[in-house]
Write a structure and sequence with these properties.
heterodimer; A: alpha+beta; 4 helices; 4 strands; 55% helix; rod-shaped; B: alpha+beta; N-terminal domain of TfIIb; four-stranded mixed sheet; four-stranded antiparallel sheet; 33% strand
């Protein structure tokens, strides 16, 4: 009888602990944190856009825009994109949260991207 | 029995912590999704406004407008301009229209230096309809905004100078009696009238050109064409010119 009690208690304990592990709130935090990072990066792209303006984007050469994006990159964030046919640089490695804003202008498209640097 | 109670309490506590964390995550997710859509919306409005300005410039630099109807023609053309920017989560539909009044500064700073209403220039109001959704999160977004932009083209002033030049020439012609209805005699009268109009146009920063051709000898009549242009207009696609033309038949005093 005592042996049966121990088995039942063990089963209850094991299933409860398994349930608690399965319902780990940290898992949700990871997805939420990734979206929060993307949202913050998008804010930073918008700040750049507001600083220079959309008219500036079409008046400047693609090289100038790429150079500006590189210049605004810092230790915590990298700005990049595609201005018409010109790509400003290689995209980040897979899995890095990246914010992207795509703007369609008459005759060409501008893709603005930002991602966090690894050391940040 | 004791272990069942203890572990059940533990599991229940774990569940309540999990649900609270889920709710917290949900709030953050929806807030971030809404923030992302709002950011896209501002950027899309800037791109749409820029496209409308580009199309206006293309329209203005490719046409020779009639002096008497230039402003109405341009207003009509602006009325038909539209743009759509779209992503997976957001669509911004922009409809343009002529503006006869509005704020001098616009809160959409991305359209500088063409933002805001400036009296006497080609002004445009942008009606922007933003509709978005992040479906799995149940976030929906709807907003209507109005922005004002302008191109530094003094259409009304040009039309007025054009009309005045035509009127000056008509006055000069109708008050002159020519002994002979010849091209040289006609041209000399028109050149004199053109001088005053040309100075006035130049003072406004415009160029005036007058062209004439004899169309009848009895009575002596002439077809007069006046062209007023504004050069060096700085638009979103670079510098351009806008020209207006007026035409009339003027009859010399018999």
């Amino acid at each position: 009888m005592r042996y049966l009690d121990l088995v039942i208690a063990g089963l209850i304990g094991t299933s409860s602990l398994a349930g608690m592990v399965a319902l780990n709130p940290i898992q949700g935090d990871v997805a939420s944190s990734s979206l929060a990072t993307e949202s913050q990066l998008r804010d930073e792209i918008l700040a750049l856009l507001q600083q220079r303006g959309t008219v500036w984007l079409i008046q400047s050469s693609p090289e100038t825009v790429c150079s500006y994006l590189r210049g605004m990159s810092n230790s915590s964030v990298t700005f990049s994109g595609e201005i018409g046919q010109l790509s400003c640089g290689a995209p980040p490695s897979n899995g890095v949260p990246t914010a992207t804003i795509v703007l369609h202008f008459t005759g060409f498209q501008v893709v603005l991207e930002a991602w966090p640097n690894e050391q940040a | 029995m004791a272990s069942a109670v203890i572990f059940s309490v533990l599991l229940a506590s774990g569940l309540s912590v999990y649900h609270a964390a889920q709710e917290n995550d949900w709030l953050h997710l929806t807030s971030n999704a809404a923030d992302a859509i709002a950011d896209d919306g501002i950027a899309f409005e800037g791109a749409a406004g820029t496209n409308i300005l580009l199309r206006e410039q293309a329209l203005l630099e490719s046409s020779l407008f009639d002096c008497g109807s230039a402003s109405a023609t341009v207003s009509g053309e602006i009325e038909g301009l539209a743009d759509t920017q779209a992503s997976a989560n957001l669509t911004v539909v922009t409809a343009a229209g002529p503006a006869s009044q509005g704020p001098a500064s616009d809160n959409l700073s991305m359209l500088a230096p063409f933002g805001g209403y400036v009296d006497g220039l080609v002004d445009t109001v942008l009606h922007e309809e933003l509709k978005g959704a992040a479906s799995p999160l149940g976030v929906s977004y709807a907003k209507n905004e109005t922005h004002y932009v302008h191109l530094p083209v003094r259409m009304g002033e040009m039309a007025s100078d054009c009309d005045q030049a035509l009127s000056d020439i008509e006055d000069a012609v109708s008050n002159t009696s020519l002994p002979e209805c010849t091209a040289s005699a006609v041209n000399s009268v028109i050149a004199e009238a053109e001088g005053g109009s040309g100075s006035r146009a130049a003072g406004s920063g415009f160029q005036l050109a007058v062209d004439s051709a004899l169309v009848g000898a009895a009575p002596c009549s002439v077809n007069v064409r006046v062209e007023v242009s504004q050069g060096g207009v700085v638009g979103p696609a670079g510098s351009f010119s806008v020209a207006l033309r007026g035409e009339e038949i003027a009859v010399f005093e018999s």
